[in-house]
Amino acid sequence: MGEISGKKNLSYTEVFSLNGAAEANILPVTSICNISCVFCSHKQNPPGVLSYRIAACTPDEVRQVVSFLDPARPVIIGESATRIIEGEPLTNPFIREVLSAVRAALPHTAVQITTNGILLDESMTDFLCRLGRVTVNLSLNSAVEKSRYTLMGDACPGRALRNTRLLKSYGLPFNGSIVAMPHLVGWSDLEETIGYLEQCGAETIRLLLPGFTRLAAPALRFKPALREELNDFAAGLRHRAGVPLTCEPPLVYDLKPVVGGVIKGTPAAAAGIRRGDVIHSVNNVPARTRVQAFRQVFKAASPEIIVAREEGLVPLQVKKEPLERSGLVMDYDLDPVLVTDMALALRRNGAKRALALASELGSAVINSGLMQFLEGEAEIEVLTVKSRFFGGSIGAAGLLTVADFETALTEYLRDKPGRLPPVALLPEPAFDRRGRDLTGRSYVDLEQKFGIRFELL
């Protein structure tokens, strides 16, 4: 059963359908976790956040919802991307039956499982291998036993480390992730963990910048410079790392489609694409951003790619099927389609001016996209919205609330009285399918207060 702020119970099917899990191709299996990470976001949520907690789902419950998943996209298990609190999927006592039900319904669909690895023993690893088309996203966080206890409360830290080595011996593909906490465990811990994941055969390694809210304990807070320090640290390791090493959120200053890395043994690697290449065109279509280039390559069959290097333009071919992964690793910047959609929103409303409300993390790339791709007489101003509800270091669009937008617009009008355009554009990730934010407020409240049209993009 699910609960909203501990007040109302819903069935598994209702929780699944209400939270956009199907749209994201996410299959939630439990909210129960077997560790207690100091950086867990759920511990820092301010009062009033709507969240759904579920017990371990059963195979029958999964069979009721699996038909809503898209067989052409990977099924995501254990990833916190909806309002459902995601726990450790392998704690579900029915997990093998659940995964078998998914495989029976979707025999050719890839499955991605995010796990801390503690329960990923030899028997489970063997089962996942036999299930087929499974990739593990391993949240290891530290390969140092003492640090694992500090960061995750892992009382038996050797288990996850031993289990990580099993993935390589069984040939189960996996990606490693590390929530970077050098202010607690030091930079050497981070470097050792990266080396361990590479040694164990990780295809990629992600360094995740932790976030803290205004309610976080003082020990969990860090200076704003950590984001840049983490990116500099990763840049210093990339030249000797044997696998793609990325930072999230990425520190992106431009929209140049630079290749961040190439996964070994993939079509992109076979084609000779290298980290640092700039994709010039895909099948003679100019590549304008990282997101656009990545998607062009992903969708195409054996695309002809021209990359820019110091020696000039180099033609290459990535031999692959349509919708087969290429092996390219690229930072997320901007899809030019977003700018097109913004211009369409103005035309729909018969307006020539609009205000685009953007998160602190997203406003720079949106500004760059508008400067490069906005055509015609349309005028779109970007207004950066600070996360006041969550506070702290939070800067993502998906965590902004109606109250945050309200405050930003009020301050805008104070500084520019009478200058509010007839249309305002809001980041869609901040709202659910019914237009409600994380506190349950609808964006329609903004229309009623400010008397202009709001659209979600």
Give the distance, in angstroms, between the N- and C-terminal Cα atoms: 32 Å
Q: What is the CATH third-level topology name of the largest domain? A: TIM Barrel
The CATH superfamily of the largest domain turns out to be Aldolase class I
Number of helices: 15
| Main β sheet profile | 6 strands, parallel
Corresponding CATH architecture of the largest domain: Alpha-Beta Barrel
Rg over CA atoms: 23 Å
Helix content: 25-40%
Instruction: Give the integer mean of the pLDDT values.
Output: 94
List unreliable stretches of 5+ residues.
1-7
Structural class: alpha/beta
Shape: globular
User: Any idea how many domains?
Assistant: 3
Strand order of the largest sheet: 4-5-6-7-8-9
- The level 1 CATH classification of the largest domain is Alpha Beta
Number of strands: 19
Q: What percent of residues are in strands?
A: 15-25%
Question: Could you describe the 3D structure shown?
Answer:
Keywords: 4Fe-4S, Iron, Iron-sulfur, Metal-binding, Oxidoreductase, S-adenosyl-L-methionine. Pfam families: PDZ_6, Radical_SAM. This is Radical SAM core domain-containing protein. The strands form five sheets. A six-stranded parallel sheet has the order 4-5-6-7-8-9, with helices on one face. Strands 12-11-13-14 form a four-stranded antiparallel sheet, with helices on one face. Helix content is 32%, strand content 18%. It folds into three domains: 2-248, TIM Barrel; 261-329, PDZ domain (Pdz3 Domain), CATH 2.30.42; 336-456, Rossmann fold (3-Layer(aba) Sandwich), CATH 3.40.50. Strand 1 (2-4) and strand 2 form a beta hairpin. Mean pLDDT is 94; it is low at 1-7. The protein has helices spanning 12-18, 59-65, 95-105, 122-131, 145-152, 158-170, 182-185, 187-199, 226-238, 267-271, 290-299, 336-348, 363-373, 402-415, 444-450; strands at 2-4, 8-10, 52-54, 75-77, 111-115, 134-139, 174-179, 205-208, 245-248, 261-262, 278-282, 285-286, 304-309, 312-317, 328-329, 353-359, 379-385, 423-426, 453-456. With 457 residues, it is an alpha/beta fold.
